[in-house]
Specification:
Arc Repressor Mutant, subunit A; elongated; disordered N terminus; Mos1_HTH
Length: 131
Amino acid sequence: MAGIIESSPAHQNFSRYDIRVITKFSAILGKDASCIHKDLVAVLGKNAPSIETVRKWVKAVSEGQDDMEDEPRPGRPVTACGDANISKVLVSLSDDRRKTCEEISTETSMSRTSVLRVLTKKLNNKKKFSK
């Protein structure tokens, strides 16, 4: 792949699944992990997986793993920053922009950390420190 395909924005839209399939295909062809990684970096640039990740995927292929999907992980999925919760926080703030995270949390039935995550990550509200 290196040298054949130039790195461009059109080639950087590969999903994680796509990259795993490319890695699997290359490993079946007999390429080693470092060669596969160089090819991925040539096409994907900074969006390429690390060499350690490529080694792990190549090892999985060599051990006969056919499934390239992510394994389910234990725990709750992160849904605190979903559109519904962002709307709840915005509605709560529409009454009074000076509410604390605890007040919003009580009003919206969301955890305080979820409220804080919505405020800082999704709404880009920065905490202002008094001097």
